[in-house]
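Much of what follows relies on a compact textual record of a protein's fold. Think of the row as the fold of the chain written in a discrete alphabet. An example makes this concrete, so a full record is given next.


***
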Amino acid sequence: MGDEVQQHALRPDRGAWLPVIAGACAATVLIVAALVSTMGVRLTAREAIDQEVHENLIRLAAMAASSIDGELHAKLQDPSQEETTLYSMLNEPLTNAIRRTEGVRFVYTLRKVGTDLVFVLDGTPLGDSDNDGVEDHSFLMDVYDDPDPAAWEAIRTNRITASDEPYTDQWGTFLSSYAPIRREGGTVEGVVGVDVSVGHYQARLQRVDKAATWALVPGLVLSLLTGVGVWWFTRRFVGYANQIEEHRAVAVRANKAKSALLASISHELRTPLNAIIGFSAIANDARSTSDERSEALGTVRSNADHLLTLIGDLLDISKAEAGAIRIECSEVDLPELIDRAVVPMRLRAMEKHIGFEVVGLESLPDRVVLDRTRVRQVLLNLLSNAVKFTDAGFVRLTLSVCENNLTMRVEDTGPGISDEERSVLFTPFTQLGPHEKRIQGTGLGLTITRHLLDLMGGSIEFESSPGKGSAFTAVVPYELVHCEPSDGDSERRNRLAHEPLAGVRIVLADDGEDNLRLVSLILRRAGAQCKTFENGEKALESILLEPDQCDLLITDWDMPVLCGEGLVRQLRESSWTRPIISLTAHAMPEQEQLCLSVGCDAHLTKPINVQRLIITCIDLLEQTERTQWAA
């Protein structure tokens, strides 16, 4: 027995395929069930639409037939009678039916003459309204070439009939119904035909198909997640079934599997993290030279910015749909902004051995006011797509300005966009074309781009020829900055360049030790005198003990003992009126509204933007000085 247990422990591959098979089976069963149920609902809905359309056709034909006097109808035998009062009187109900009933294209009457069906009445006005080269109106005693079999069926059976499938004749494709016109003796004089445009019918069927497709997505996702769950549970079950000696090995394999899964999902996030960690070690290595440390720190900062951008891109689509993206305009060096966005894209183009050209950079104004981050994001999205989808040829960025509008046109010689793909071009998570299987991406770039341009008051247009390439044109409004800065601007820049917070007494509350050290270092380098506390209660005691010894409070929101909200409320209730800044990792608009409503004067988010933090402090202190002077 002991040998058998040992043999089990020495066979780590035992049951290796069981979790995969169980998960696959569970997912397959649920997927099949979802497909069957969705298709059943779809077929039921289509049948209901078919039934409704069929009943409406029968009803319309019956109503039209009841409005026609069979005896008078029988008197119309000669084409010259079309100009008579009798023809007009009998034709009026048909004309009204066309005009008043949505979707009805033609209403007319037919009579059997020999082996042909001929037209008698037609409520359609004279002319070619649909420009198909065929006269819409059918004249009295015109032969109906190749008529709908349902019309012959109505005459033969003396019953109301309707076409089961769309029928095409020289006037187009229609769903039709026919009702007998009877004379006083009950004999059939002819039939009334009602033609309904097939486009209206097909549009309803397409809506059903689309709804069924979207309804299937949650079922597929749930099926896959269930399969993964079954796989995971079964895998753990098999692992626990092994002997205790194998427990550690099972845990190691589980960790490796988890790491592999995370690596495949977050490759784009781990790449900059790898550079940050590696170059941080180099910067802290005593053997590194000054130049190596400087280069390492620069690389860390660059990759940290890149990592933040990646996370921001994933959050932007959620914010955009919730209407929570904020546009923050500031003075920027426009040529420098464009150039920094172009550099990484030019390198990517060189790696793919395709041309990359920038036209019109020298024509841009030097200083403008716009949202630096969002404009750069728009340009990077457009250039990244162009380079990614272009395997041969070139990518060209053409820049121009007109009436305070910046136009950025990105052209490429990629595969282009087909007519079918145009309708879903800006749909989230949609990737197009034959490249879809080999080009990685979330399909969010153009969706985010259009949202950002809408928020900035801009626009985006595109042109494309399949097989020849595409061109996207983004327009962004901006404000010009006067060439001569004001005295206040010069003084502000000089102040920021040295010690902008010299002599300012600041209390800082944050339960994060690293954040506390970082923010206090930033403030002290700006010249401020900074007191730090790890919770709101200690900060409150310090300020209330010496209220005049604190010019400004910067507080985190989520802290032990006394949170930021409690700290701010108690200070305001004690009539302390100095400025308060909330500095938290909560970036949602609701958090900002909460902070301002309880008494904060400004709300900033982490990661910390050093320049914005210092400028906000200066602005609030200057406002306080002006208020005190006015009082």
Observations:
- Residues 580 and 601 are 5 Å apart (CA to CA).
- Residues 1-265 form a domain with the Beta-Lactamase fold (CATH 3.30.450.20).
- The radius of gyration is 38 Å.
- The first helix runs from residue 2 to 9.
